[in-house]
Amino acid sequence: MPSLTNQKAVITGATGGIGSATAKHLIALGAEVIVSARSRDKLDTALAELGPSATGHVMDLSDPDSIAAFFAAAGPFDHLVTPAASSMFAPISDMDLAAAREIFETKQWGQMLCVQAALKQMPESGSITLFSGTVTQKPIRGATMFAAVGGATEAAARIWAHELAPMRVNTIVPGIIETGVWSGLMGAEAAQQTLDATASALPVGRVGTAHDVAKAVGFLIDNGFVNGHALVVDGGHRLI
To answer: Beta 32-37 vs 8-11: how paired, if at all?
Structure first.
């Protein structure tokens, strides 16, 4: 097990399944975590669950001033992890363009603003872990915005790995992960049917868990020789 003792990590969006699991995993490895949530109530709930190794502040990823204030309040830290995201599935013929723009604003623009603000607080020995999704490699109907934004994130991360060296910049590329986002998108019953069907088709025989992704984040933070890489965590989904 790697050790992150005496290191601090900022995790944006710690109220989601992947963000929460990542915070818990990094704490288990010895890190202190600084987390964000969009509302005070959600932030307080997350902090109560994470315990004394976590602190946090409210941050709205669609508001540049809120992002700047969050990182100013966070102070110096070693690692940035950005799992926060909005959710949307729609074919281009029926797409709500305002909702599509919101995906871009929170996921791509929000991640970029977080990186820019975080650099003022991070050492050269630090790391940045961004988030994409396997729809950049395996098309799924209705996932236009996830694919477009994820592809932009992966491309930006490779450029930033050059620009920010020796700081390391990598991207996690999750596949189908069992979190509450699926119920929010399609309802509980349809979500379970989708997850079950995916599990039976995947080479590993199951869908992913938030902890699977959290362990991948821990690896990228710990391994100082991995840089500019898009780490796919999908149970082999892109292969079928």
So the answer is: parallel
Q: What distance lies between CA 30 and its chain's CA centroid?
A: 20
Q: Which two tokens stand for residue 127?
A: 């790391």
pLDDT tens digits along 100-126: 888 888 888 999 999 999 999 999 999
Bond before 166 cis per omega within 30 degrees: yes
SS in 3 state form for the chain? CCCCCCCEEEECCCCCHHHHHHHHHHHHCCCEEEEEECCHHHHHHHHHHHCCCEEEEECCCCCHHHHHHHHHHHCCCCEEECCCCCCCCECHHHCCHHHHHHHHHHHHHHHHHHHHHHHHHCCCCCEEEEECCHHHCCCCCCEHHHHHHHHHHHHHHHHHHHHCCCCEEEEEEECCECCCHHHHHHCHHHHHHHHHHHHHHCCCCCCECHHHHHHHHHHHHHCCCCCCCEEEECCCHHHC
- Other CB atoms within 10 Å distance of the CB of residue 220: 22
pLDDT digits (tens, 9 = 90+) for 30-40: 999 999 999 99
Give the residue among 230, 228, 232, 81 at the shortest CA–CA distance from 158: 228
Residues in the chain: 240
Characterize the bridge pairing of strands 127-131 and 168-174: parallel
